[in-house]
Amino acid sequence: MNESRGAAIAVRDLSKRYGSTLAVSDLSFDIPKGSIFGLLGTNGAGKTTTFKCMLGLARPNAGSVAFDGIPLRPQTFEELSYVPERSALYGWMTGKQHLEHARRSFRRFDAARANELASLFAFDLNKKASKLSKGQQSALALVLAFSTRPALLVLDEPSAGLDPLHQRHVLDLMIDAAAGGATVLFSSHQIGQVERAADRVSILHQGKAVMSGEVDQLKASEKIVEATFEAGAPALNGIDADPNVRRVMRNGRLLRAYVRGDCDAVVRRITQAAPSSIRVIDQNLEDIFVAAVGASASLRGERE
Amino acid sequence: MPAILTVDPRSGVPIYLQIVEQVKRSVALGVLEPGEQLPTVKQLSADLTINPNTVARAYRELERDGIIDTSPGRGSFVAGNGSMSAARKNLADVAAAALHEAVREAKSMGLDRVAIDKIFSSVLDRWYGDGGPASRRSS
């Protein structure tokens, strides 16, 4: 469960262009074995395109992807389960027939586990997939993915269309898989899910990774130093030049410095300007996301 | 054990630190006793619906601080010797940091030493009782 076991997935300098649109731009990340990696971003940030390029469903314009150090090959799929955003089920087949199909296709398929998961998500295995609700179709696709007990799970918006209870089940399944040694990559625009389940995150915006790292590490290192002043906030010349300061926001008597890493120097610097109050504010993942993507992000209020 | 641990994933405080602090608090207060077994990483991550590596990191931190012992195959246990005093020492540090912050905040609001001292005495009286000669003198 640590990094020394090497990267299960390594993405390097991946770029994908659709016409004049750069959907993914110079994207790189490593996913250590046994970890849960969250790709977080607004709709259209490039999450699905990234998955397609990784799995050979779209041809990247540049870059490489390695699974356990080896480029994608047919055998990769023996150990990998991919659940696309729109479930790839056969509408004319029942849930049972899908399970039977998976049992014959995958050596490691666990039928008992499949039945257990189907009852967890409470859908009727005798119904044709086309007769299931959207949420139930997603659930069936997830049951199939997790029942093959794969070493790698790639899940594109796995809880889209599911109710909150079933969304929690999906997180539980990912956590259980990772605790058993599997590596999970999932995308979400729900910050709460990533904050809970992922140990690493990459925040995508307009095809670029604007911030990446361990979730706990990001929380520990990203702070806001907020100070108020009797008159207007002073210029504090040079504070923007501090390598730890991401940006400085001034609004009348209020000054906010977004700081990465050690903020003691910034606190001292601002204290010298005699503020009437000064405090250091912890940031949760939503704050970090909004700061990284820009205050215009439309995700506010979309948390779990 | 799960009943005494809760985490708030939305907090700005890293989840592993939340676990570390809570276990230390439980050990300091004797809620968790030396030799008592902690849930496995897998169990606790499932109970709290949080990443297993995060739990593993919290356990490593607790082991480094002498609060728990982990032996491969057997699990994690509250350390026997000195785990309680180590946890208490740590909590005193946490409390000192919180008081430090509170006083800095009060000073930045323009309160002078006498005013803060007065507030401090009344807070101490409230939580520790109006017992000591020092508190009687100041009131």
Mean pLDDT of chain B: 86
Strand order of the largest sheet of chain B: 1-2
> Percent of residues of chain A in helical segments?
25-40%
CATH architecture type of the largest domain in chain A: 3-Layer(aba) Sandwich
Low-confidence stretches of chain B: 135-139
Radius of gyration of chain A, in angstroms, nearest whole number = 22 Å
Roughly how much helix do the residues of chain B carry, as a percent range?
A: 55-70%
Main beta sheet strand tally, sense and closure of chain B: 2 strands, antiparallel
Number of domains of chain A: 2
Q: Termini separation of chain B (Å)?
A: 43 Å
CATH fold name of the largest domain in chain A: Rossmann fold
Q: If you had to describe this structure to a student in words, what would you say it looks like?
A:
The complex is a heterodimer of chains A (304) and B (139). Chain A has 304 residues and is an alpha/beta fold. Chain A has helices spanning 47-54, 95-105, 111-120, 134-147, 164-179, 191-197, 215-221, 264-272, 285-293; strands at 7-18, 21-32, 36-41, 62-67, 70-71, 80-83, 152-156, 183-188, 200-205, 208-214, 222-228, 245-251, 254-260, 277-282. Chain A has a six-stranded mixed β-sheet, with helices on both faces. In chain A, a hairpin with a 2-residue loop joins β12 (245-251) and β13. In chain A, α3 runs antiparallel to α4 (134-147). With 139 residues, chain B is mostly helical. Chain B has two domains: 2-82, Orthogonal Bundle (Arc Repressor Mutant, subunit A); 85-138. Chain B has a two-stranded antiparallel ribbon with strand order 1-2. In chain B, β1 and β2 (75-78) form a beta hairpin. The longest helix of chain B has 26 residues, at 83-108. Chains A and B meet through α5, α6, α7, β14 and α9 of A and α1, α2 and α3 of B.
Structural features:
heterodimer, A: Rossmann fold, Alpha-Beta Plaits, 2 domains, disordered C terminus, B: 139 residues, mainly alpha, Arc Repressor Mutant, subunit A, 6 helices, 6% strand
